[in-house]
Amino acid sequence: MLDQRYRWKNKQIREHVAVLDGKLSPDMVLTNARFLHSTLRKWVTGNIWIYQDRIIYTGEKLPEKTSGCEITDCSGQWLVPGYIEPHVHPFQLYNPQTFAHYAAQKGTTTLINDNLMLVLLTDKKKAFSLMQKLRHSPVTMYWWARFDGQTELVDEEMVFSHECVKSWLEHDAVLQGGELTGWPKLVDGDDLMLHWIQEAKRMRKKIEGHFPGASEKTLAKMMLFGADCDHEAMTGKEVLNRLMQGYTVSLRHSSIRPDLPVLLDEMKALGIDQYDQMFFTTDGSSPAFYEEGVIDRMIQIAMEHGVPPVDAYLMASYNVARYYNIQHLHGIIATGRVASINFLESETNPVPVSVLSKGVWLKKDGKGIEPEEPVDWALYGQGPLELDWDLEPDDLQFSMPFGLEMSNSVITRPYSISYDVSYEVLPDNYEDNFLMLMDKKGKWRINTLVKGFAKNLMGLASSYSSTGDILCIGKSKSDMLLAFKRMKEMGGGIVIAENGKIIHEIPLPVGGIMSDKSMDELIGDMKKFSSILRDRGYAYDDPMYSLLFLCATHLPYIRITSKGMYDVMKKTILFPTIMR
Fold first, then answer.
1. What percent of the chain has pLDDT over 90?
2. CA angle (427, 432, 437) in 5-degree steps
3. What is the Cβ-side half-sphere exposure of residue 54, based on CA atoms within 13 angstroms?
4. Engineered SS bond to 577: which of 173, 444, 456, 480, CB 3.0-4.6 Å?
5. Would you list the DSSP string of 262-313?
């Protein structure tokens, strides 16, 4: 059954009807259930019958047969549909399986996942096999189909070929195209991207935008091209602009953009009090950000800022399901839907005491179940990173006339390097670090300096980047070499070295990008990593995203990429990579 995307076979549907007719017993009955009815928009009371992973009946009746049936009295509880996270980047050090288990403990039982790392780290056949494997998870996972790599890739036309993108769009687990990080190419006349959008629309699938700071005219253009939703509104006015142009708006609260309180307050000041065309996203935040919750946290913030509880719960469930045309499966507690239900202590506390997902208890009376058997990632082309080359002292030559200066966690501007950097260890009074991006296959490198990252950092090596290539940062060349050596030994990860010693490491054995640890363990590792960097001068919100986006060309102004140092605004390569 789990091998299907909820298209129940005839035999199974006959069994469902037999339960209703009293010929078979349901697996579970929830009695005296006060639950939110998403279309009535109010709390109703009744009994809920569940057979396997499907709700068979909601109403006043009780089943005729109850042999072997689990009966749960829900008196005193409030039941709501399982929460849906519509914009997941499931590779932010965690992996899709560990994030799904963690999110489900807090009530988020359906995830719509970015496919970027599946495209970059493995081939299509293995990616689709992994998606099939993950269908056996008690958490429901859907996917996107990316149209670009959000960086300048060598042979990008092969990585994101027409055949590849079309295959992803046709996959039944894929609900949308995008996000459109490469939308400037579309505006400039990229008809292949426009064709992919047209194909997605023909298949009745959505297009997710990525339009930070977009003007009213640009938003209108992108709506004409086919965009349906955007998650980049950073003010109430920007929310209004998107609504006026016909967008659905995904309100974001993330580790680098914790905007939800401001958005809600400014929306209220603008007189926006209808929420049917809105839902929530945490936009792939770093592990530590999730310590306080996932979508449950956003529901709580919404209620604290004046959103009525019913609206807040619908924004976390039914609004998403309706937008993606999956409301026949998700987002409503009613006959025929997947049995994913959160059990709350009160109407105003969205953190569930019990969680039912696909008819299986993932949390019961405050106690979570053990995680499922870990995926063998190597079977799907995402085993430990294997580097058949070494970083050599000769690679650490830095003579670039300008470097990257950080304005915040993710924005980098150019600055002139007018002073001597021919040191083995940069002087303490320099605010710069050496910065190098290395091809994971060892074929090329780009060397420059970065200012504002962490001026007292000696050596850091990371296989975690937006392309899976290797980053090295630090003041000391010998510590950079040591950190790289240890990162290579681990099969990928993030390593900090100082004065000839390793002082912290985060192994990332899943493709060199993701951890196989639980989220709780990873949160501890990431908090220590952030603390070490802050002690050495890192002054921004999220060092994980700083590493991730050094190569990402969907943000201004200067980036290091596999093609070289890239000017995002002028769309030109300023200095090419050096072949090794």
1. 95
2. 120
3. 22
4. 444
5. HHHHHHHHTT----TTEEEE--S--GGGGGG-SHHHHHHHHHHTT--HHHHH
